[in-house]
Each structure stands twice: as C-alpha cells, then as structure tokens.
Amino acid sequence: MGKGERHRKYDPEFKKHVLRLVAEGSPAVKIAEDFGIPVDRIYAWRKHEKKEMGAVAFAQSGGKVLSPEEELKALREELAATRRERDIMKIALSIFSKEP
Length: 100
Known about the structure:
The protein is mainly alpha-helical. The protein contains five helices and no strands.
C-alpha cells in the first residue's frame, strides 16, 4: 500500500459473493476490475477459505464455499458411489477369477 492508503475492510457477505463468482468460473481479474478490488485480495480470500474449509472439502466442492450441511451431503453421496464401485469390483473379480 502506498503512503496515505488504508487497508479497506470488506463485508463477509461481499467476500462470499466474490468467491462464489470465482468458483462459478468467472475470471478473478475481471471480478476484481468489476468490483474495484485488488486481484491479489481475491486470491488471499480463496487461500484463507481453503484453509478454513480444509483442502479436501474445498476440492470436492469444485472450489465453492459449502455450508456444513452441503458438505455432509456431498461426502455421503461420494461414499455411496465409492461403495457401489467397490461392490461392482468384487463381483467382477469373482467372475473373472473362476476357472473355465
């Protein structure tokens, strides 16, 4: 920051809105220009959000900020899909391991 510049505070809802736009695929540079905020501020918010949510939850959400309920639902769906895949692999293994 230059001389005379102050560190500007942003509302948490504003931060969430900006991060949601980035998660939906809007370029951070364009969002920064549109809202008149430094692009490095957006990257810092994303980094902080990743840290708070945990990298796994952040990645699973596609970079979107999820509520605890949404995260739990997504994790349960992923677990169910993984179990189905495991069961299919067990069946395939038993079929292919039989002697002709």
